User: Fold this.
Amino acid sequence: MEFVVISLLNGITYGLLLFMLSSGLTLIFSMMGVLNFAHAGFYMLGAYFAYQISSWVGFWPGLLVAPLLVGVVGAMIERYGLRLAHKFGHVAELLFTFGLAFLVEEVVRLIWGNSSVDYPIPAELDGTLFTLFSTDFPIYKGFMMLISVGMLVALYGLLTRTRIGLIIQAALTKPDMVEALGHNVPRIFMLVFGGGTALAGLAGVIGGNAFITEPSMAAAVGSIVFVVVVVGGLGSLGGAFVASLLIGCIQTFSVALSISVTDVFALVGIALPQGSQISRLTITQLAPVLPYILMVGILIFRPRGLMGARES
Amino acid sequence: MKKKFIQHLALAASALMISGSALAQVKIAFIDPLSGHFANIGENALKGFTEAADILVNQKGGIMGQKLEIVGFDNKGSPKESQIQLKAAIDQGFRFVTQGAGSGAAHALVDAINKWNARNPDKTVLYFNWAAVDPTLTNEQCSFWHFRFDANSAMKMEAITNYMVTDKKIKKVFILGQDYAHGHQVAKAATEMLAAKRKDVKIVGNDLHPIGRVKDFAPYVAKIKASGADTVITGNWGNDLSLLIKAAKDSGLKARFFTFYGGAIGSPAAIGAAGENSVYQISDWHMNIQPNKAEQYALDFNKKPGGEMSVARVNTAVTMIAQAMNKAKSTDPKTVALALEDMRFDADNGEVWMRKSDHQLMQPLFLSVFSKKGSKGVKYEAEGTGYGWKTVASISQRDSQLPTSCIMERP
Assistant:
């Protein structure tokens, strides 16, 4: 029982962090049709900015300033890079963000070095929130949940309840009409790109010290974020939310299961040859691969994702 | 204009050639990850090799008057790329290579070098292994052309389990490792040795996770907790170790960790206060061993960028290689190999011995625990954490020895 509850909490926490990362990506995709390969790079930038700021003035200013800075960097990249690449079509855009991902990593290496940096959890948040059965639940995990849920609510409110949200939604489907009504659509795109990257930056600020701030942190989450977005349905914010929680829980629980691949196949009546490499694998070993298996399954049986709007 | 440029170029080239021949060099190719996930490990070791060659060899007369030079080749941590870099090094005239981070790459190099040397007996290559600890490299797969300067994982596990015999508080052990050759060997050694030495100890879990891929170890920690383990044995290194211990601390897991690489670059900083009196490491050296012959060397080393000194074996390897060459008055790989065999050397961690039968270096080992700086036996902290390593057990060179099954083919 203890184990199930704790694992569920772990899964939800991880899922919410994934959502923070993927919400920006799916937002940018639904707005601009750009699959931003460099998205995880902004996550890393958020972590490094926050590390730098917190080493000067503390964690709390960093929590606010770092995502804004990342957003500004994102907006500048959109204005002076992506917009130029946009003229040459989707492939050019895709390649641009692809190259950008490498560029961000190399720049981070140049400035902060190859090794991990010491970006600690602030003392106020370092401790135990509550003890469930005999396992401690750290304050910081609660804080992560709070930030991501708060962000979800704010984002939803912004998109559905405000004027700027309405314009953004309109620009999503009918950019020409919105432009004809006198709105500056390229600027809206720039804001959305900046906003999306700022969300990734925010995830980096709180994920950087929850895990480890190092130059390969972007590559480590880069692929899983795409899994979330594809499983949830490209462009669907709600889908990204459901998929994040789903993948968070799948990964957490699959680690816990001590059954082997042989047992799983036995369930569906297939007997694997004894002693082979595959039959000795356990689900625990496979845990990090499962989201990708899920993605392949979704792409085969439901290409538009769980809640995706369009077939693409 | 263009002609003048070419003239200058020719002049510069000839000047280079003259200086090259005046300062003939003995060169070692350092084939390890210098980019990617484990770059920090590779760069820290390259710094170790370069410093050792400079201070311990070149400033003390060099090798028969020649300078020893270490040149980095980036294998990106991959076995395949290691073979490509080996080929590049051989083409550039290198006759000595060194590698350490990863037993997969080590196997690939041994394999390639065995083949090369069989086909090119006049241009043989010698391989110094500074850290790949898969025991098979000096047992079933041993090679005349391979010398290992690190204690293999079976020797280290022997030391850990010998300590566990004396500590009756250990009752339930969980083994967690990375899913590749090293992790498998650690798990195998731990289960076999514990079964032989402490029949009362129960192994409550034995899991492998993908190397370098897990961001949040909380699920693994939940599993360790559910198993009721009081002790965890792990061969993890780099971030795989740091994140595991961080997650354990967050969930309030009261288990002790016995690690192989708790002292390697980046890990002490990540472990921090969470590891106080609960994280152990088995190593050939640490900053607080007594007597610490490398104390001043390490202090100078740590002042330069590129990470702290955490092992003695890099210095041991470089100095022994230079001594073997000086003793044999030759830089021919086969002659150097013969001179290294059976060599005894007074290293930073005590007297070491290169066993002839399997080319495994025998050296003292130290089991230490992460403790507050300033407490008894902890003079120096690690990576500015306020905590350092305190020796809890010293294993003499003689006690660290294990028999070998090596049947070496000698040229």
